[in-house]
Amino acid sequence: MIKHIRLINWKSFEDATLYIDPLTIIIGTNASGKSNTLDAFVFLNRISSGIGLFQAINGDVNLPALRGGSEWICRKPHKRFILEVRTDTAQEDQEYTYHLEVIVNGTKAEVYEETLTLVTQRPGTTAPTERVLFYTKYDEADAKVISAFFATGTKGNTKRIDLNKNSNVLSQIQSQGVQKEISDAAKYLQNEFRGIFVLSPIPSHMRDYKPLSAKLLSDGSNVAGVLAGLEEGRRKEIEDTITLYMKSLPERDIRRIWTETVGKFRTDAMLYCEEGWEKSSAHLIDARGMSDGTLRYLAIVTALLTLDRGSLLIIEEVDNGLHPSRAGLLIGMLTELGKERQIDVIATTHNPALLDAAGPRMVPFITIAHRDEDSGVSRLTQLEDVTLLPKLMASGSLGKLNSDGSLEAALRQEDAS
């Protein structure tokens, strides 16, 4: 699992770190850096599949560009950005640190430096030990990427391989015949990045008939196709779980959510919902009659139930379309299903009701994205690190402090001092 990501000269960030917990909530005003943070995960996911660095930033006919494209991927006036990721490993006392520095120039984006390090913290030791598994540096003299693979951690045992500098080294290692330890580490990191899934449900895309699908799309449009495409026993189990979490969402009781295949060849599917008041007869509707908030919530639940275990689910404006009174249900669902499926969740929000529902117990897992008044750079500050927080919380809830600007004012005061 990814434990934290560090952003250096990435978009609006100078140097900031996001720490990732089972449920991480990012708050902040408009243009504070929330979306820029999430774009870093999109970038890592894209390059893990072998997509070139420039294409991962600027997109192509089938892939949307990251916001701003290559023109705004580096903090001005810099031409290089760094992403540094810490993950766990199969061993409890070990972690990986992955460092990627990319140089962006006009129509090119190339590896400038890339490193994978094994970090070991033995019981009873005060400091961890670090061993470089591979180190890559762009050689400006011959315009090639030099890769030094360390078999024993000594510089005397290295191997130079000239690689394609337009793609990250992780995506090229498997074909290079390197040591098994390095190959296994690279594969592990690739799987971690491939497990990143950014969900931005668009209800209007979910209301039509959809073909049977194996994986959920980022806009949630094929929820019906994913559910209907499951093996029958698994489909029934997931539909029952969805129904359980959907029951308390609307004012009218939801008795059942399910999918059915349609058409002569049974290759398309539709979402159906049975609802009704306690003493009334059942009322049947399909996705075309469901509210935006219901469909968004359904897409989030479906993602948590169908993504692979160990995935990282990222949801921007997680409570969009939900009534404030349902914020507690949302927090509970994200926490329970995330824990059950071993899926970490990162969510952004502007909603005071969601923060109030989270309550003081969630303070360690909330991060504030904010801009420095003097330099304009974005920063990420864990809420529990705000010195004035105890005093502020004595005067109001988290939602109130967020909506009236008290948290940002406290951060500005700390920056000034």
Any overview of this molecule?
It is built from eleven helices and 18 strands. It is an alpha+beta fold and 417 residues long. It folds into two domains: 2-195, no CATH class; 202-306, no CATH class.
Provide key terms for this protein:
417 residues, alpha+beta, 28% helix, 2 domains
Indicate the structural class. Answer: alpha+beta
Shape: globular
- Number of separate strands: 18
Tally of distinct domains = 2
Major sheet: arrangement of strands:
2-1-4-5-6-7-8-9
The largest β sheet comes out as: 8 strands, antiparallel
Radius of gyration from the alpha-carbon trace, in angstroms: 23 Å
Q: How many H/I helices?
A: 11
Measured by DSSP, the beta-strand proportion falls in 25-35%
Q: How far is the N terminus from the C terminus?
A: 36 Å
Helix percentage range? 25-40%
Which stretches are low in confidence, meaning pLDDT under 50 for 5 or more residues running?
A: none
Please trace the helix and strand order, writing H or E for each element: EEEHHEEEEEEHEEHHEEEHEHEHEEHHH
Mean pLDDT: 89
